[in-house]
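[job 4471] stage=fold_predict status=RUNNING
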Amino acid sequence: MTNGASSRPGAGGPRARGERRISNTVVALGFVSLLTDTASEMVYTQVPLFLTQVLGQGPAVVGLIEGVAESTASLFKVISGGLSDAGGRRKPLTVAGYSLSAITKPLMALAAAWPAVLLLRFLDRTGKGLRTAPRDALIAEVTAKENRGRAYGLHRAMDTVGAILGPLLGVWFLSFFIGSADRQLRALFLFAGIPGALAVLTLMFFVREKPAPPRPVPAADAGSGVGRGFSALAHWRELDPAYRRFLGIMFLFNLGNSSDAFLILRAHHFGFGQQTLLWLYAAFNVVEAVLGYSAGVLSDTVGRRPLIIAGFGIFALVYLGFALVNSATAAAIWPLFLLYGGYYTLTQGSQRAFAADFADPARRGLQIGAYHTVVGIALLPASIIGGVLYRWRPGAPFFLGAATAAICALLLASQRSPSKPAPAA
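[job 4471] inference complete, writing structure tokens
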């Protein structure tokens, strides 16, 4: 056991210098996310094609399946956070979540009717919901507070590399596998099982969890696992008031943050074909992959809040651009998409680190889960509203998104940051 001043994060010496480095656990979790996103993005755009061309279903079924999938993920994020707090362990739920998602890809090859696809997408998103909050809490617990921005930034950047590799590997595989659409897609689902399995093996053998001392479950969190999981929202008043305000701002922002599918539809409306759209989406992900870690380092230096505000500002500009674009200015969609990658770069890791900074260490998984759930709950009505507005007037959902982002940037400018912990005695 190490005692003395040298063991404190703020003290000098080798230990302090070591704590400024990124933990091997964070790097391993980055590779887990990279491999998992490779598998997911390899098949994500092909599932609607499988439903319509192979199983003969229409857009209504596609919408039902994706709506159920995303709402499931948001629910399980807060449940798993509470469960990981109560058990004092993050890794078991993280392994369970990644394993569940990994097995659904090859099983999709066996689906003969759309209810089977619904079940598998439900299980896939259940896996995502189970793993997210415990994984983010695990990153926080193996990283010094002054280093969290770069840790989350690195993790997000590696996750985005997987989002680039997945579609490229999918294109490569389909170009070599000759056959009907049915055979091609089922073979692709099987192929996606390889990076998914590698992700689970990496998690099991290379991710180390810090032993946590036994912690009593607060009275407010007593009861069933589901009850503990929802207590962060059910006992809203017990959260730090500044954290509650931040969650409220995030809810409002995400009400205007409709699905990225509407950006794709807008680009397609102005003549962007299927291959061009793939390159467009790849370029968007490259921006985040290249700059994500640097943004995390910057958030440790200048703070999370300024980066999130800047990201909201970029979002407002991008959405305003998509609202105003026309046939004569369609080429502007390229720089708008690249700029949109900048929004993701500045906000995704910073928002998670900001939530982790606010969270009570004794209930960190639960309270980080509350952040993910607030965001996830808002995204479902956001996409429904976006769809209604897009049908009425294609530019309307983008005007709404630009307005809510601008309002939230102003609200966040007056948001206080988490209190710094008292210096160690």
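[job 4471] summary: The chain is about 75% helix and 0% strand.
[job 4471] exit 0
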